[in-house]
């Protein structure tokens, strides 16, 4: 059973291998694979009003997400989120649990909508998951992501009202 809880500093040794694995694959995140643990933590662990969480099975961290305002000021009524799941925990509902958590959190915080700015179009599992949770593709930036095997592919902007 997957339990989602707030990230605490002592989680980083469990989150860092997931972050490193996902980024090293090069097929879903436009993060620099050469980042140090400290650089990655600085990007992944967000400050309030954002929130970073971990998905756990007992004490084992299976995935992580962060969420918060998509933009400051006049754009702060729309939330955004990013998700990472360990490869050995995929197809077990971890991504869906994190997505549902993020949507509920955003609703509770009073956001009007959630927007994902950069879903790699070839990441079919994620695209299907987000669509099943009510997101729609509102645009695609062509050739905006350098995929390691497919070359340049598009980045979807996905959106849903809350």
Describe the secondary-structure layout.
Elements: E1 3-6, H1 12-25, H2 37-44, E2 51-57, E3 60-69, E4 78-85, H3 94-108, E5 113-120, H4 124-132, E6 136-147, E7 151-161
Parallel strand pairs: 4-5
Antiparallel strand pairs: 1-2, 2-3, 3-4, 5-7, 6-7
CATH topology: Aminopeptidase
Structural class determined from secondary elements: alpha+beta
Order of strands across the main sheet: 1-2-3-4-5-7-6
Strand content: 35-45%
Q: What would CATH call the class?
A: Alpha Beta
Shape: globular
CATH homologous superfamily label: Gcn5-related N-acetyltransferase (GNAT)
Oligomer type: single chain
Which value, in Å, is the CA radius of gyration? Answer: 15 Å
Give, in order, the helices and strands: EHHEEEHEHEE
Annotation field: number of helices: 4
Q: What is the makeup of the main sheet?
A: 7 strands, mixed
Low-confidence stretches: none
Distance between the termini: 26 Å
CATH architecture call: 3-Layer(aba) Sandwich
Summarize model confidence as the mean pLDDT: 97
In total, the number of strands is: 7
């Amino acid at each position: 059973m997957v339990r989602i809880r707030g990230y605490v500093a002592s989680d980083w040794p469990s989150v860092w291998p997931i972050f490193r694995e996902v980024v090293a694959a090069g097929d879903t995140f436009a993060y620099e694979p050469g980042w140090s643990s400290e650089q990655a933590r600085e990007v992944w662990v967000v400050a309030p009003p954002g929130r970073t969480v971990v998905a756990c099975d007992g004490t084992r961290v299976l995935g992580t997400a962060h969420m918060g305002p998509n933009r400051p000021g006049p754009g702060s009524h729309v939330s955004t989120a990013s998700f990472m799941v360990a490869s050995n925990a995929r197809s077990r509902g971890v991504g869906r649990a994190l997505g549902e958590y993020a949507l509920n959190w955003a609703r509770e915080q009073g956001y009007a909508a959630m927007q994902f700015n950069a879903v790699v179009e070839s990441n079919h599992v994620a695209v299907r998951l987000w669509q099943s949770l009510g997101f729609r593709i509102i645009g695609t930036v062509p050739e905006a992501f350098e995929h390691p095997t497919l070359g340049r592919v598009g980045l979807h902007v996905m959106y849903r009202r809350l």
